[in-house]
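Deliverable D2.4 — example input (C-alpha cells):
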C-alpha cells in the first residue's frame, strides 16, 4: 500500500489524483483509493487541511498526488445587499460554521436549521453540488484552543514584564 506522508508545494510531475470532500480533507489518517484505482493511506501531520490543488507525496518520494476538492451538496447564499450578506456571515460565524466566502456569495454545508435561519434573514439560499473550500480561520489553521502551543506567540500582544 502507498503511504502518503507529506504535503509539498511544488513538483515537476503529478502521478495521480485524489478526490475528497471537505470533511475527509481534514483527516490526517485515512485509507483512500486514488483515481488510478491504487489503494493508499494518508499519514499526514495533524491539523493539516488539504485544499483542492494541494500536492502530497509518498513516503519514498516517488509518487506525487494532487488533491481534487469533490463536488458535494452545499448551500449557495446570496443577499439583496452587501450589508445583508455581512449580517448572514456574522450569524454563521457566531455559530462557528465553516464558511466559504466569494464575491457576493457565501457557501456552507447543507443544514436545514441554518437554511431556515438564512431565509429568515432575507437571504436567497440554493442547494447546489460544488467543491467546498471554507476559510481556514484567522490564523490559517484549523480549530484551536488558546491553551495549546500553537506557535502564534509572536502575533499575541505582549504584556508589560514579558520578554521582548
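Example output (designed residues):
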Amino acid at each position: 500500500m502507498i503511504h502518503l506522508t507529506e504535503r509539498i508545494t511544488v513538483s515537476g510531475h503529478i502521478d495521480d489524483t485524489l478526490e475528497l470532500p471537505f470533511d475527509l480533507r481534514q483527516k490526517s489518517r485515512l485509507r483512500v483509493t486514488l483515481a488510478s484505482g491504487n489503494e493508499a493511506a494518508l499519514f499526514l501531520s495533524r491539523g493539516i487541511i488539504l485544499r483542492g490543488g494541494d500536492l502530497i507525496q509518498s513516503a519514498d518520494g516517488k509518487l506525487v498526488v494532487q488533491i481534487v476538492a469533490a463536488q458535494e451538496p452545499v448551500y449557495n447564499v446570496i443577499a439583496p445587499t452587501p450589508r445583508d450578506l455581512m449580517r448572514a456571515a456574522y450569524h454563521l460565524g457566531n455559530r462557528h460554521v465553516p464558511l466559504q466566502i466569494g464575491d457576493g456569495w457565501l457557501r456552507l454545508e447543507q443544514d436545514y436549521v441554518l437554511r431556515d435561519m438564512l431565509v429568515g434573514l432575507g437571504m436567497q439560499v440554493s442547494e447546489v453540488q460544488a467543491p467546498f473550500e471554507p476559510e481556514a480561520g484567522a490564523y490559517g489553521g484549523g480549530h484551536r484552543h488558546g491553551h495549546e502551543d500553537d506557535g502564534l506567540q509572536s502575533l499575541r500582544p505582549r504584556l508589560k514584564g514579558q520578554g521582548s
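The beta strands are 2-8, 16-20, 29-33, 39-43, 55-58, 64-69, 71-78, 100-102, 105-109, 124-131.
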